[in-house]
């Protein structure tokens, strides 16, 4: 199968070709690996290959009931464990270990007939909104290789945008599905808390903020993936009720007329690029033509407090993860990137009452959003405050690393955290992506939809956040937007 033929189909379309005998899984795998090879030097999207295991798999039979039979697939190199394979989480030292068991999502992907042949790049422990781990180097955006594909699922976003695969594994702890989707002209749905199992490696990810999922070119691939991945596992601490009908069936119908409140004001109070404003206003106009009520509204939550609460919990999680890897695998502080060391040092200065107070405020943010959703069905905002940044734009200068090292040695991070320096860290980390953390802290479903390209030809998605248990509604709206403003055939010139 030639590349131009391969990319005409989404994952469900490729699986249908396999079932009809029009193409073999081996031919699909050959097309995917050839594209991965051809784009690797430009993008660095796929950092680990499993060609031998994939070749063995396509030689085995597939079942007619498998929804993705024979379709090539990439998992994310972060908390998507595949039994027997290394998973570095963006850290080269951790890659010495091999997964003892597969993650629930990976097991379900295999059972559905997907052919895993590689893992995509991720920042170390998913801790950044750009994908530039020291272990593997930066991933670049297929639309403009001087720019970032976002993070932390940046490798997956770049791989799908480049046509390596039509859908790829992703996860989202602060925007990590929606940010790369927005950067790469793709669809990205962050499921609600409890919709998809995080196990068996974890009961919860980041105190319930993190979820598993995918990035896809078509809405229906994401709907079918949610059908596949949603539902309880015996070890899950909680789960959402099953939908009355499949998500794939639901998107065949347009949504009812919706009330949608939209905002472009940055939650962190930082500047918003005019292109991000234009993307949101454009989406509002499209929604109005479809019969939805759209209304500009004030920011429906305390953005600065939410950003602070997000990073405080994130720093604590980084400290816990580093300590755990030290105990289990003997990793030393020098095995981690300097920025990771700083985040962990910040986390170690947080007292138990501070952390519990922070998590309690998460519930207050949830209450604020619940009050908003009593009046509006969805909240619309930019996904990003600006178009994709240049690679390296948020890299910490070496001189600041030296300062951080000295602060850590003197034990001063506890004091620093209470100064404007901490606020500067918040703005540096979240100023470009201040809109996405809301859905993580509140556990609500959210999505980024690719409706807008800048005059420079760079994608810039918009975000919708729904109430609890609204994945079906979000997917219905996304499918409706996909029909009136199709993006499937928009491809980077790569």
Keywords for this structure?
494 residues; Amidase signature (AS) enzymes; 11 strands; 11% strand; globular
The SS-based structural class is alpha/beta
Q: Could you give the distance between the termini?
A: 19 Å
The stretches of 5 or more residues where confidence is low (pLDDT under 50) are none
Residues in β-strands, percent: 5-15%
CATH hierarchy class name of the domain at 3-254 and 447-484: Alpha Beta
- Name the shape in a single word: globular
Percent helix, as a range, is: 40-55%
Order of helices and strands: HHHEHEHEHEHEEHHEHEHHHEHHHHEEH
Strand order of the largest sheet: 4-6-5-10-11-9-7-8
Task: Write down how many β-strands occur, each being a DSSP E stretch of 2 or more residues.
Answer: 11
CATH hierarchy: architecture of the domain at 3-254 and 447-484: Alpha-Beta Complex
> Radius of gyration in whole Å, from Cα?
21 Å
* Number of helices, counting only DSSP H or I runs of 4 residues or more: 18
Average of per-residue pLDDT values: 95
Q: What oligomerization state is this entry in?
A: single chain
CATH superfamily of the domain at 3-254 and 447-484: Amidase signature (AS) domain
CATH level 3 topology of the domain at 3-254 and 447-484: Amidase signature (AS) enzymes
Instruction: Report the major sheet.
Output: 8 strands, mixed
């Amino acid at each position: 199968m030639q590349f131009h033929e391969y990319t005409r189909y989404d994952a469900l379309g490729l699986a249908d070709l396999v079932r009809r005998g029009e193409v073999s899984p081996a031919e699909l795998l050959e097309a995917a690996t050839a594209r991965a090879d051809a784009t690797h030097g430009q993008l660095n999207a796929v950092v680990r290959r499993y060609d031998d295991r994939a070749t063995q798999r396509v030689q085995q039979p597939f079942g007619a009931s498998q929804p993705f039979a024979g379709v090539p697939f990439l998992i994310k190199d972060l908390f998507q464990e595949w039994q027997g394979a290394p998973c570095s989480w963006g850290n080269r030292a951790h890659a010495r270990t091999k997964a003892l068991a597969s993650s629930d999502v990976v097991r379900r992907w295999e059972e559905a007939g997907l052919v895993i042949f590689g893992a995509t790049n991720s920042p170390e422990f998913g801790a950044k909104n750009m994908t530039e781990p020291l272990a593997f180097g930066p991933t670049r955006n297929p639309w403009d290789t001087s720019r970032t594909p976002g993070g932390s699922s940046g490798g997956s976003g770049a791989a799908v945008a480049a046509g390596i695969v039509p859908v790829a594994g992703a996860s989202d702890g602060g925007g990590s599905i929606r940010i790369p989707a927005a950067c790469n002209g793709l669809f990205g749905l962050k499921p609600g808390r409890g919709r998809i199992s995080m196990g068996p490696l974890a009961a919860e990810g980041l105190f319930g903020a993190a979820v598993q999922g995918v990035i896809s070119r078509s809405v229906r691939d994401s709907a079918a993936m949610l059908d596949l991945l949603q539902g309880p596992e015996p070890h899950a601490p909680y789960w959402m009720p099953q939908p009355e009908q499949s998500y794939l069936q639901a998107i065949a119908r347009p949504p009812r007329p919706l009330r949608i409140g939209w905002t472009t004001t940055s939650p962190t109070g930082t500047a918003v690029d005019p292109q991000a404003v234009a993307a949101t206003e454009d989406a509002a106009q499209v929604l109005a033509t479809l019969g939805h009520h759209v209304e500009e509204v004030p920011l429906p939550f305390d953005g600065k407090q939410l950003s602070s609460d997000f990073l405080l919990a994130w720093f604590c999680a980084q400290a816990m993860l580093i300590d755990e890897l030290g105990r289990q695998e003997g990793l030393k502080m020098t095995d981690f990137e300097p920025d990771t060391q700083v985040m962990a040092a910040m986390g170690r200065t947080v007292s138990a009452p501070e952390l519990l107070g922070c998590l309690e405020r998460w519930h207050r943010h949830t209450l604020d959003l619940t009050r908003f959703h009593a009046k509006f069905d969805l909240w619309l905002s930019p996904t990003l405050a600006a178009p994709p940044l240049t690679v390296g734009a948020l890299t910490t200068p070496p001189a600041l690393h030296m300062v951080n090292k000295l602060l850590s040695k003197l034990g001063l991070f506890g004091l620093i955290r209470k100064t404007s320096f901490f606020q500067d860290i918040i703005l540096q980390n979240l100023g470009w992506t201040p809109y996405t953390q809301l859905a993580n802290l509140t556990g609500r479903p959210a999505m980024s939809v690719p409706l807008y390209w800048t005059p420079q030809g760079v994608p810039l998605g918009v975000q919708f956040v729904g109430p609890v248990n609204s994945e079906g509604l979000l997917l219905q709206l996304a499918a409706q937007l996909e029909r009136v403003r199709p993006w499937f055939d928009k491809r980077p010139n790569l």
